[in-house]
Design brief:
By secondary structure, this protein is mainly alpha-helical. It has five helices and two strands, in the order H-H-H-H-E-E-H. The protein is 65% helix and 6% strand.
């Protein structure tokens, strides 16, 4: 339940999505997360660091830890389902 609570917080999944392939500084990450306030981003990053899902590298950039990568792998089936769901909705709306 702790993980679901963390993932259910606004912007958490977006932060994880943005960090899936790359390391970003705070400002870069904020720019990629359209409209997220710096206070919310700071809070989400702190929560994700405390959960050992995100870490700060030597250059000050944020990146996924091994735990974070494993979490994204665990979420991959949900991402696949969401893509199929989106396609079905698109076909129905035509």
């Amino acid at each position: 339940m702790v993980v679901l609570d963390l993932l259910g917080r606004r912007w958490t999944l977006r932060v994880l999505w943005e960090l899936r392939d790359q390391t970003f500084t705070f400002r870069e990450l904020q720019a990629r997360c359209d409209g997220m306030s710096s206070s919310v981003l700071n809070l989400r990053l702190r929560e994700l660091r405390e959960a050992d899902i995100v870490a700060v590298d030597e250059g000050g950039g944020y990146r996924l830890t091994e735990e974070g990568r494993e979490l994204l792998e665990a979420l991959a089936p949900l991402n696949g389902w969401a893509a199929q769901w989106g396609e079905r909705r698109l076909r129905r709306s035509r």
